[in-house]
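User: Predict the complex.
Assistant: Input components as received:
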Amino acid sequence: MSLTILGTGSAMPEKRLTNEELTHMVDTSDEWIVTRTGIHERRIITTETLSGLGARALSLALEDAGCAPGELELILCTTVRGDTATPALANMIERELKIECPAMDINGACAGFIAALDVAAAYLASGRVKRLAIVSAEALSFLTDWTDRSTCVLFGDGAGAVVLGPGDGLKDLKLTAKPSEEWLVADAPKGNSPFFQGRPQHPYLTMNGQEVYKFAVSSVTRDIRAMLKANGLEAGQVDWYLLHQANLRIIEAARARLKQPREKFPTTIERYGNVSSASIPILMDEMNRQGMLKAGQRLIMSAFGAGLTTGAALMTWK
Amino acid sequence: MLPFHIKVTKKALEEMTMFEKVAEILADYKDIDVSAITMDSTFADLGVDSLDTAELIMNLEDEFNITIEMNEKLSTVGELVALIEENVK
Protein backbone atom coordinates (compact mmCIF):
# COMPACT_ATOMS: atom_id res chain seq x y z
CA MET A 1 0.00 0.00 0.00
CA SER A 2 1.55 3.28 -1.03
CA LEU A 3 0.69 6.28 1.07
CA THR A 4 2.35 8.65 3.53
CA ILE A 5 0.76 11.38 5.65
CA LEU A 6 2.69 14.58 4.87
CA GLY A 7 0.77 16.99 7.09
CA THR A 8 -2.24 17.35 9.37
CA GLY A 9 -4.63 20.15 10.34
CA SER A 10 -7.85 20.70 12.23
CA ALA A 11 -10.36 23.47 12.94
CA MET A 12 -13.08 23.61 15.57
CA PRO A 13 -16.02 26.00 16.01
CA GLU A 14 -15.61 28.72 18.68
CA LYS A 15 -18.70 27.80 20.71
CA ARG A 16 -17.98 25.47 23.63
CA LEU A 17 -21.15 23.77 24.79
CA THR A 18 -20.60 22.51 28.33
CA ASN A 19 -22.60 19.82 30.12
CA GLU A 20 -23.72 22.53 32.52
CA GLU A 21 -25.29 24.51 29.68
CA LEU A 22 -27.04 21.36 28.45
CA THR A 23 -28.71 20.94 31.85
CA HIS A 24 -30.70 24.09 31.04
CA MET A 25 -31.87 22.62 27.73
CA VAL A 26 -32.76 19.00 28.57
CA ASP A 27 -33.24 16.95 31.75
CA THR A 28 -29.66 15.80 32.34
CA SER A 29 -26.67 16.42 34.60
CA ASP A 30 -22.91 16.77 34.26
CA GLU A 31 -22.49 13.57 36.29
CA TRP A 32 -24.93 11.62 34.07
CA ILE A 33 -23.18 12.69 30.86
CA VAL A 34 -19.62 12.25 32.14
CA THR A 35 -20.14 8.78 33.62
CA ARG A 36 -21.92 7.47 30.51
CA THR A 37 -19.85 9.14 27.80
CA GLY A 38 -16.70 10.80 29.18
CA ILE A 39 -17.75 14.04 27.45
CA HIS A 40 -17.34 17.35 29.34
CA GLU A 41 -17.94 19.76 26.47
CA ARG A 42 -18.29 19.82 22.68
CA ARG A 43 -17.86 22.48 19.98
CA ILE A 44 -20.97 23.59 18.10
CA ILE A 45 -21.28 25.65 14.91
CA THR A 46 -22.87 29.08 15.41
CA THR A 47 -21.69 31.54 12.76
CA GLU A 48 -19.14 29.26 11.05
CA THR A 49 -19.80 27.16 7.96
CA LEU A 50 -18.67 23.58 7.58
CA SER A 51 -16.81 24.49 4.39
CA GLY A 52 -15.06 27.31 6.27
CA LEU A 53 -13.93 24.92 9.02
CA GLY A 54 -12.86 22.34 6.43
CA ALA A 55 -10.92 24.98 4.48
CA ARG A 56 -9.11 26.08 7.64
CA ALA A 57 -8.21 22.50 8.56
CA LEU A 58 -6.95 21.89 5.02
CA SER A 59 -4.88 25.12 4.99
CA LEU A 60 -3.18 24.08 8.23
CA ALA A 61 -2.52 20.59 6.86
CA LEU A 62 -1.01 22.05 3.66
CA GLU A 63 1.20 24.35 5.74
CA ASP A 64 2.29 21.41 7.93
CA ALA A 65 3.09 19.38 4.79
CA GLY A 66 4.95 22.26 3.14
CA CYS A 67 2.64 21.84 0.18
CA ALA A 68 1.12 24.67 -1.89
CA PRO A 69 -2.65 24.53 -2.48
CA GLY A 70 -1.98 24.42 -6.24
CA GLU A 71 -0.01 21.18 -5.88
CA LEU A 72 -3.13 19.24 -4.83
CA GLU A 73 -4.45 16.97 -7.56
CA LEU A 74 -7.48 15.61 -5.67
CA ILE A 75 -9.55 16.49 -2.61
CA LEU A 76 -11.64 13.82 -0.92
CA CYS A 77 -14.07 15.12 1.65
CA THR A 78 -15.83 12.93 4.20
CA THR A 79 -19.06 14.14 5.75
CA VAL A 80 -22.52 12.83 6.56
CA ARG A 81 -23.96 16.25 5.76
CA GLY A 82 -22.31 19.18 4.01
CA ASP A 83 -23.45 22.82 4.03
CA THR A 84 -25.32 22.00 0.82
CA ALA A 85 -26.71 18.75 -0.58
CA THR A 86 -25.12 19.90 -3.82
CA PRO A 87 -22.44 21.06 -4.61
CA ALA A 88 -20.36 18.58 -2.63
CA LEU A 89 -18.61 19.89 0.49
CA ALA A 90 -15.27 19.19 -1.23
CA ASN A 91 -16.18 21.70 -3.94
CA MET A 92 -17.38 24.26 -1.39
CA ILE A 93 -14.00 23.96 0.38
CA GLU A 94 -12.20 24.42 -2.95
CA ARG A 95 -14.19 27.62 -3.48
CA GLU A 96 -12.99 28.95 -0.11
CA LEU A 97 -9.34 28.20 -0.93
CA LYS A 98 -9.50 28.95 -4.66
CA ILE A 99 -8.25 25.48 -5.53
CA GLU A 100 -9.19 23.85 -8.82
CA CYS A 101 -8.65 20.09 -8.90
CA PRO A 102 -11.02 17.13 -8.94
CA ALA A 103 -12.91 17.01 -5.66
CA MET A 104 -15.66 14.81 -4.28
CA ASP A 105 -17.43 13.75 -1.10
CA ILE A 106 -17.42 10.30 0.45
CA ASN A 107 -20.09 9.42 2.99
CA GLY A 108 -18.81 6.56 5.11
CA ALA A 109 -20.53 7.73 8.31
CA CYS A 110 -18.22 7.77 11.33
CA ALA A 111 -15.75 5.43 9.57
CA GLY A 112 -15.55 7.84 6.59
CA PHE A 113 -11.96 8.93 7.17
CA ILE A 114 -10.69 5.33 6.89
CA ALA A 115 -12.84 4.82 3.78
CA ALA A 116 -11.27 7.93 2.22
CA LEU A 117 -7.79 6.69 3.14
CA ASP A 118 -8.58 3.50 1.21
CA VAL A 119 -9.64 5.49 -1.88
CA ALA A 120 -6.56 7.73 -1.53
CA ALA A 121 -4.28 4.68 -1.31
CA ALA A 122 -5.76 3.32 -4.55
CA TYR A 123 -5.29 6.67 -6.35
CA LEU A 124 -1.67 6.90 -5.21
CA ALA A 125 -0.94 3.24 -5.99
CA SER A 126 -2.22 3.69 -9.53
CA GLY A 127 0.05 6.70 -9.99
CA ARG A 128 -2.93 8.87 -11.02
CA VAL A 129 -1.99 11.56 -8.46
CA LYS A 130 1.05 12.47 -6.36
CA ARG A 131 -0.55 14.90 -3.88
CA LEU A 132 -4.04 14.73 -2.46
CA ALA A 133 -5.93 15.75 0.65
CA ILE A 134 -8.64 14.23 2.80
CA VAL A 135 -10.84 16.69 4.66
CA SER A 136 -13.27 15.25 7.21
CA ALA A 137 -15.79 17.88 8.28
CA GLU A 138 -18.92 17.19 10.28
CA ALA A 139 -21.81 19.18 11.72
CA LEU A 140 -23.82 16.64 13.69
CA SER A 141 -25.46 19.54 15.56
CA PHE A 142 -27.69 19.98 12.49
CA LEU A 143 -28.85 16.35 12.66
CA THR A 144 -29.40 15.82 16.37
CA ASP A 145 -32.71 16.40 18.14
CA TRP A 146 -31.91 19.06 20.74
CA THR A 147 -34.90 17.95 22.83
CA ASP A 148 -33.65 14.32 23.06
CA ARG A 149 -31.32 14.05 26.05
CA SER A 150 -30.10 10.58 25.04
CA THR A 151 -28.50 11.80 21.78
CA CYS A 152 -27.99 15.58 21.82
CA VAL A 153 -25.30 15.35 24.50
CA LEU A 154 -23.15 12.99 22.41
CA PHE A 155 -22.15 14.92 19.31
CA GLY A 156 -20.05 17.89 18.28
CA ASP A 157 -18.90 19.73 15.15
CA GLY A 158 -15.42 20.16 13.69
CA ALA A 159 -13.01 19.36 10.89
CA GLY A 160 -9.72 17.49 10.46
CA ALA A 161 -7.54 17.19 7.36
CA VAL A 162 -4.49 15.31 6.11
CA VAL A 163 -2.28 15.89 3.05
CA LEU A 164 -1.05 12.67 1.48
CA GLY A 165 1.66 11.62 -0.93
CA PRO A 166 3.24 8.39 -2.18
CA GLY A 167 5.18 6.39 0.39
CA ASP A 168 5.08 3.26 2.48
CA GLY A 169 3.40 4.61 5.63
CA LEU A 170 0.14 2.70 5.19
CA LYS A 171 0.72 -0.98 5.94
CA ASP A 172 -2.80 -2.39 5.97
CA LEU A 173 -6.40 -1.24 5.71
CA LYS A 174 -9.72 -3.01 5.95
CA LEU A 175 -13.30 -1.80 5.59
CA THR A 176 -16.40 -3.79 6.51
CA ALA A 177 -20.15 -3.27 6.16
CA LYS A 178 -23.11 -5.06 7.68
CA PRO A 179 -26.45 -3.63 6.56
CA SER A 180 -28.67 -2.52 9.44
CA GLU A 181 -30.13 0.95 9.33
CA GLU A 182 -32.35 0.89 12.40
CA TRP A 183 -29.73 1.26 15.10
CA LEU A 184 -28.33 4.59 13.94
CA VAL A 185 -30.16 6.62 11.33
CA ALA A 186 -30.84 10.23 10.29
CA ASP A 187 -33.33 10.83 7.47
CA ALA A 188 -32.43 12.96 4.44
CA PRO A 189 -34.90 15.74 3.55
CA LYS A 190 -37.54 14.75 0.99
CA GLY A 191 -38.33 18.33 -0.06
CA ASN A 192 -41.92 19.04 -1.04
CA SER A 193 -42.33 16.24 -3.54
CA PRO A 194 -46.06 15.67 -4.02
CA PHE A 195 -45.33 12.14 -5.26
CA PHE A 196 -43.42 10.74 -2.29
CA GLN A 197 -45.34 7.91 -0.61
CA GLY A 198 -42.60 6.37 1.54
CA ARG A 199 -42.56 6.24 5.29
CA PRO A 200 -43.08 9.58 7.06
CA GLN A 201 -39.86 11.43 7.60
CA HIS A 202 -38.25 11.50 11.04
CA PRO A 203 -36.24 14.68 10.94
CA TYR A 204 -33.54 13.85 13.49
CA LEU A 205 -30.86 11.32 14.23
CA THR A 206 -32.05 8.34 16.24
CA MET A 207 -29.91 5.70 17.86
CA ASN A 208 -30.24 2.46 19.82
CA GLY A 209 -27.38 3.22 22.20
CA GLN A 210 -27.06 -0.27 23.68
CA GLU A 211 -26.92 -2.04 20.31
CA VAL A 212 -24.46 0.54 18.94
CA TYR A 213 -22.30 0.05 22.04
CA LYS A 214 -22.24 -3.73 21.54
CA PHE A 215 -21.50 -3.35 17.83
CA ALA A 216 -18.77 -0.76 18.46
CA VAL A 217 -16.92 -2.65 21.18
CA SER A 218 -17.10 -6.01 19.40
CA SER A 219 -16.18 -4.66 15.95
CA VAL A 220 -13.23 -2.54 17.14
CA THR A 221 -11.84 -5.49 19.08
CA ARG A 222 -12.41 -7.84 16.15
CA ASP A 223 -10.92 -5.47 13.52
CA ILE A 224 -7.82 -4.66 15.58
CA ARG A 225 -7.16 -8.30 16.51
CA ALA A 226 -7.53 -9.34 12.86
CA MET A 227 -5.19 -6.57 11.70
CA LEU A 228 -2.56 -7.49 14.29
CA LYS A 229 -2.77 -11.17 13.32
CA ALA A 230 -2.59 -10.48 9.57
CA ASN A 231 0.56 -8.43 10.09
CA GLY A 232 2.27 -10.78 12.55
CA LEU A 233 2.06 -8.24 15.38
CA GLU A 234 1.21 -8.43 19.08
CA ALA A 235 -1.00 -5.68 20.56
CA GLY A 236 1.99 -4.45 22.59
CA GLN A 237 4.00 -3.74 19.42
CA VAL A 238 1.63 -0.93 18.41
CA ASP A 239 2.50 2.50 19.88
CA TRP A 240 -0.84 4.25 19.42
CA TYR A 241 -4.46 3.20 19.01
CA LEU A 242 -6.51 6.00 17.44
CA LEU A 243 -10.11 4.93 17.96
CA HIS A 244 -13.15 6.76 16.67
CA GLN A 245 -14.10 9.11 19.49
CA ALA A 246 -17.73 8.15 20.06
CA ASN A 247 -17.82 7.36 23.75
CA LEU A 248 -15.09 6.94 26.37
CA ARG A 249 -16.82 3.80 27.62
CA ILE A 250 -16.45 2.18 24.17
CA ILE A 251 -12.76 3.13 23.98
CA GLU A 252 -12.21 1.82 27.51
CA ALA A 253 -14.05 -1.46 26.85
CA ALA A 254 -12.01 -2.10 23.67
CA ARG A 255 -8.77 -1.18 25.46
CA ALA A 256 -9.52 -3.59 28.29
CA ARG A 257 -10.19 -6.43 25.85
CA LEU A 258 -6.89 -5.73 24.06
CA LYS A 259 -5.16 -5.58 27.46
CA GLN A 260 -3.22 -2.44 26.60
CA PRO A 261 -2.33 0.57 28.79
CA ARG A 262 -4.55 3.65 28.80
CA GLU A 263 -1.69 5.88 27.53
CA LYS A 264 -1.82 4.13 24.15
CA PHE A 265 -5.41 5.29 23.58
CA PRO A 266 -5.28 9.09 23.27
CA THR A 267 -8.64 10.90 23.36
CA THR A 268 -10.38 14.13 22.39
CA ILE A 269 -13.87 12.92 23.37
CA GLU A 270 -13.74 14.85 26.68
CA ARG A 271 -13.46 18.20 24.84
CA TYR A 272 -15.10 17.57 21.46
CA GLY A 273 -17.68 14.79 21.86
CA ASN A 274 -18.36 12.57 18.84
CA VAL A 275 -17.37 14.48 15.66
CA SER A 276 -18.20 11.51 13.40
CA SER A 277 -15.63 10.97 10.62
CA ALA A 278 -13.62 14.04 11.70
CA SER A 279 -12.80 12.47 15.09
CA ILE A 280 -9.72 10.52 14.00
CA PRO A 281 -8.04 13.22 11.83
CA ILE A 282 -8.67 15.82 14.59
CA LEU A 283 -7.10 13.47 17.15
CA MET A 284 -4.19 12.73 14.81
CA ASP A 285 -3.59 16.45 14.23
CA GLU A 286 -3.50 17.20 17.95
CA MET A 287 -1.03 14.35 18.52
CA ASN A 288 1.10 15.52 15.60
CA ARG A 289 1.19 19.13 16.82
CA GLN A 290 2.02 18.05 20.37
CA GLY A 291 4.97 16.02 19.05
CA MET A 292 3.49 12.74 20.30
CA LEU A 293 3.92 10.97 16.96
CA LYS A 294 7.52 9.92 16.31
CA ALA A 295 9.03 8.62 13.08
CA GLY A 296 8.81 4.85 12.88
CA GLN A 297 6.02 4.51 15.42
CA ARG A 298 3.19 2.10 14.61
CA LEU A 299 -0.39 3.26 14.91
CA ILE A 300 -3.71 1.56 14.35
CA MET A 301 -6.83 3.54 13.54
CA SER A 302 -10.20 1.92 14.12
CA ALA A 303 -13.62 3.41 13.46
CA PHE A 304 -17.24 2.27 13.39
CA GLY A 305 -20.49 3.93 12.46
CA ALA A 306 -23.91 3.93 10.86
CA GLY A 307 -24.42 1.45 8.07
CA LEU A 308 -23.21 -0.44 10.01
CA THR A 309 -19.69 0.19 8.78
CA THR A 310 -16.22 -0.24 10.21
CA GLY A 311 -12.71 0.61 9.06
CA ALA A 312 -9.27 -0.09 10.46
CA ALA A 313 -5.81 0.90 9.23
CA LEU A 314 -2.26 0.12 10.31
CA MET A 315 0.33 2.84 9.66
CA THR A 316 3.93 3.64 10.38
CA TRP A 317 4.41 7.36 11.10
CA LYS A 318 6.62 9.18 8.58
CA MET B 1 -47.01 -36.01 43.16
CA LEU B 2 -43.40 -37.02 42.95
CA PRO B 3 -42.76 -36.42 39.20
CA PHE B 4 -44.36 -33.01 39.47
CA HIS B 5 -42.11 -32.20 42.42
CA ILE B 6 -38.97 -33.31 40.52
CA LYS B 7 -39.93 -31.23 37.51
CA VAL B 8 -40.33 -28.12 39.64
CA THR B 9 -37.02 -28.67 41.43
CA LYS B 10 -35.17 -29.20 38.14
CA LYS B 11 -36.53 -25.98 36.70
CA ALA B 12 -35.68 -24.13 39.91
CA LEU B 13 -32.13 -25.48 39.81
CA GLU B 14 -31.68 -24.38 36.20
CA GLU B 15 -32.85 -20.94 37.14
CA MET B 16 -30.40 -20.87 40.04
CA THR B 17 -27.49 -21.76 37.77
CA MET B 18 -28.36 -19.04 35.29
CA PHE B 19 -28.91 -16.50 38.06
CA GLU B 20 -25.62 -17.43 39.71
CA LYS B 21 -23.78 -17.09 36.42
CA VAL B 22 -25.31 -13.68 35.73
CA ALA B 23 -24.64 -12.55 39.32
CA GLU B 24 -21.05 -13.75 39.13
CA ILE B 25 -20.33 -11.90 35.86
CA LEU B 26 -22.12 -8.78 37.13
CA ALA B 27 -20.27 -8.81 40.48
CA ASP B 28 -16.94 -9.27 38.70
CA TYR B 29 -17.62 -6.48 36.18
CA LYS B 30 -18.88 -3.90 38.68
CA ASP B 31 -16.57 -5.04 41.48
CA ILE B 32 -19.43 -5.56 43.93
CA ASP B 33 -20.19 -8.33 46.45
CA VAL B 34 -22.04 -11.18 44.72
CA SER B 35 -24.15 -11.78 47.85
CA ALA B 36 -25.65 -8.31 47.42
CA ILE B 37 -27.25 -9.37 44.13
CA THR B 38 -30.72 -10.92 44.13
CA MET B 39 -33.29 -11.65 41.40
CA ASP B 40 -35.19 -8.57 42.56
CA SER B 41 -32.15 -6.24 42.53
CA THR B 42 -32.73 -3.35 40.16
CA PHE B 43 -29.87 -2.21 37.96
CA ALA B 44 -30.36 1.31 39.31
CA ASP B 45 -29.81 0.02 42.88
CA LEU B 46 -26.64 -1.79 41.81
CA GLY B 47 -25.27 1.29 40.01
CA VAL B 48 -25.56 -0.51 36.66
CA ASP B 49 -26.41 1.87 33.79
CA SER B 50 -27.57 1.08 30.24
CA LEU B 51 -24.03 0.63 28.87
CA ASP B 52 -23.12 -1.64 31.80
CA THR B 53 -26.17 -3.73 30.86
CA ALA B 54 -24.95 -3.86 27.25
CA GLU B 55 -21.47 -4.90 28.46
CA LEU B 56 -23.02 -7.54 30.71
CA ILE B 57 -25.10 -8.92 27.85
CA MET B 58 -22.00 -9.07 25.60
CA ASN B 59 -20.27 -11.17 28.26
CA LEU B 60 -23.31 -13.43 28.57
CA GLU B 61 -23.56 -13.76 24.77
CA ASP B 62 -19.96 -15.01 24.72
CA GLU B 63 -20.56 -17.26 27.72
CA PHE B 64 -23.65 -18.95 26.27
CA ASN B 65 -22.84 -18.49 22.57
CA ILE B 66 -26.09 -16.62 21.86
CA THR B 67 -27.12 -13.31 20.28
CA ILE B 68 -29.56 -11.08 22.11
CA GLU B 69 -31.36 -8.15 20.49
CA MET B 70 -31.64 -5.31 22.97
CA ASN B 71 -35.00 -3.80 22.22
CA GLU B 72 -36.61 -3.96 25.62
CA LYS B 73 -35.75 -2.02 28.72
CA LEU B 74 -34.45 -4.29 31.44
CA SER B 75 -34.72 -3.01 34.99
CA THR B 76 -34.02 -6.00 37.25
CA VAL B 77 -31.52 -8.87 37.41
CA GLY B 78 -34.48 -11.26 37.21
CA GLU B 79 -35.60 -9.78 33.88
CA LEU B 80 -32.08 -10.20 32.50
CA VAL B 81 -31.96 -13.85 33.70
CA ALA B 82 -35.32 -14.50 31.99
CA LEU B 83 -34.10 -12.89 28.74
CA ILE B 84 -30.94 -15.02 28.68
CA GLU B 85 -32.93 -18.20 29.41
CA GLU B 86 -35.33 -17.41 26.58
CA ASN B 87 -32.41 -17.11 24.14
CA VAL B 88 -30.47 -20.15 25.41
CA LYS B 89 -33.43 -22.49 24.72
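The first helix of chain A runs from residue 19 to 22.
Let me know if you want any component modeled separately.
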